[in-house]
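Issue 218. Parser rejects a valid record. Input:
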Amino acid sequence: MTQPTALDIPSEVQQLLQRYVKETRTLLGPQLEGIILYGSAVGGEFLPGRSNLNLLLLLSAYEREGMKRYAKAHKRWSRDQFVVPLLLTEAELTKSGTPFPLEYLEIQEQHRVLWGRDPFIGLHIDRTHLAYQVQQGIQGNLVRLRQRYIEGGGTEEAITMLLPLSLTALLPCLRGLQRLAGQPALFQSDALLTAVRHMTGLELTGLGDVLELKRGIISPGPVEVPRLYERYAGDLDALIKLIQPDGTVAPR
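Output the parser choked on:
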């Protein structure tokens, strides 16, 4: 597992994380065993003002009063783009036949311990359900995309907001496809898309365009936005069809 020597995020965000660690240790007390940062903040693609801060809190047990104290504090932390953390015990992480191999592999391969123990050192993650979770993740993404399109009235503004959010949720699934194919998972988005294109034989122009939209590189107008939506949704549908019943990935 490769980790960066320093967090590639603004100093003010690092200071924010330091305050978070100090307060969370006080709130949860002895039940807290570790605070682990994962996601774009350790993957080199953190976008200030856009990216969330994802954390895993390693607990020895779930003590209700501590959870209640944390819940009150989280309302404040959420304003600084902290999402609700994963709350797990080591027993849950090490349970055989885990139904969440994709999430655990993502964190294991790219994370930073902010405080306490690292439960991922030497951890074997059962991949039995990986193919199912990857396929379900991509299919669910497409279903939610259609739902949110309707919720947003199909407007240009709604589409340009929902497509980057959809891509953010999709990237772990693309790395899941790499793992199913026996390839190392890539966390840099451009390299990931290039590798998946080569692996699948798909052009994935919709995914590439949405990545540029997410980064603010392109600003498609009212004529192009619906076309971008169709290209992106078509890419998702094509990816779903590549996963075989035996868990392998069949290139087009």
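Fixed in the parser; the record now loads. The chain has two domains: 11-116, 130-240.
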